[in-house]
Amino acid sequence: MTETTTNPFDTDDDAFHEECGVFGVWNAPDASALTALGLHALQHRGQEASGIVSLGEKGFRSHKGLGLVGDIFGDARVIASLPGRAAVGHNRYATAGETALRNVQPLYADFAFGGFAVAHNGNLTNALALRRQLVRRGCLFQSSTDSEVFVHLIAISLYATVLDRLIDALKQVDGAYSLVALHDGALMGVRDPLGVRPLVLGRLGADQNNAWVLASETCALDIVGAEFVRDIEPGEIVVIDDTGVRSVKPFANTANRFCIFEYIYFARPDSVVEGTPVYDTRKRIGAELARESGVEADVIVPVPDSGVPAAMGYAQEAGIPFELGIIRNHYVGRTFIEPTDNIRHLGVKLKHSANRAAIEGKRIILVDDSIVRGTTSKKIVEMMRQAGAAEVHMRISSPPTTHSCFYGIDTPEREALMAANHSVEEMARIIGVDSLAFISLDGLYRALGRPGRDAKDPGYCDACFTGDYAIPLTDLVGHKEREPALLALNGV
Question: Where is the Glutamine amidotransferase type-2 domain (predicted)?
Answer without folding.
Answer: 20-243
